[in-house]
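thread: overnight batch results

M.L. [08:02]
morning all. the overnight job finished for the chain we discussed friday. pasting input first so we're all looking at the same thing
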Amino acid sequence: MPVDDRDRDHDHDRYHDHHRGHDHEDRFEERLGEALHHAGGAYETDRRALVAAGEARGQRLLLRRRAAVVGGVASVALVGLGGVLLVPGGDDGRQSVATGAKTPVASAAPNKSYTGDELIGILEKLLPRGKFGTAEARGTDEQLPPYAQVVYNDGKGEAAIAVGLGRELPGSEQARQTVECPDKVLAPYDRCAVTRLPDGSALKIVQGYEYPDRRADTKLWTADLVTAKGQHVSVSEWNAAAEKGAPVSRAEPPLSPARLKTLATAGAWLGVVDAIPVDPKAPTAAAAQPSGVSGRAIGSTLVSLLPKGVKVVAKSGPDSGYGYAVLDDGKGRSLVQINVQPNMSDVEHQLFGADAETLADGTKVVTHKKPGEKGGVVMWTADTIRTDGFRVVVSAFNSGSQETAATRTAPALTTKQLRAIALSAKWRGLG
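M.L. [08:03]
and the structure it wrote out:
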């Protein structure tokens, strides 16, 4: 529908002045920190734990993407506006954005530079008839990825709608995970669907929540498009006028899954992605898959080491280096998570202090009992490292998920049992 045919509750001068200033950039950077919990799960990041995880190492990079915290190791991806994944790029700070998949229509002229104003104009033209309020955006010629966000009202209440744009390396682990439904144990949501489009693109649509622990009724629905060329379009919408801090203004976000698909697959966005300057330092081929221990083997081994009488009601998939099991011993569900990480000697001094126990063979062991991230949840951990840097860290919670309330007073496993699991010789047989 032509833009002139739709109502507007703001004039262009007002919103141009608003989003051209530095205020929106400051708010965006604040949201970067706040939104760390989105990457398919929701966990606040312990900076020391990230360092302790040795996340800069090749085979451990994947662990940063895990929506899980094992022994205090937060394995999440940085998330920007509206759940858009920001994956480390070159040294100049440019990022690539992870979103859904789309079928391109006529793409805009390649290599054209786009201002924030133009991106807002594109977004508003692509939305159904309605009124528009506050808007903010960033163009294609800035350090961080381009995006546009508007407050939209179709007559049923205000809602924030955002689009983020960037690139993924075709065939990379990042591209694959961008269009995979998250594990419901780690990232609660209502519905997720992945569609392969005729042109080779993949589209993921998730109907979830701004707060996975449901402490507020703010819903977050997203569409992520990744094309065969690696163009990435991410759409996010809320049933409130802002991601956080605004009251719910309607029962659901305004765009249905079908309309989310239409917006994410609009060809105009592909031209914007093509206009983003290419980082000359960025890799041109997908990296080899991590050679860490198979997640499937870790999960199976963990189950084999559990005490008798404990029922496993859910367990992890094949991701490398990480596994989990949800236990039920008749007293409520309890999540147990484990990381198996070779070659961790370089961060040993950060993980094991003076309180660590040193066994006869030189293995170091430390146990912790700490509050979890949500009210009433506790996390008990056993962390071990062998003399060659082979680390096994296992944690148990008094809830079936870190995003739900406590289901019992204590985890299903004691610290003594966690210690025995982490020290088992079976882990050595996995790699």
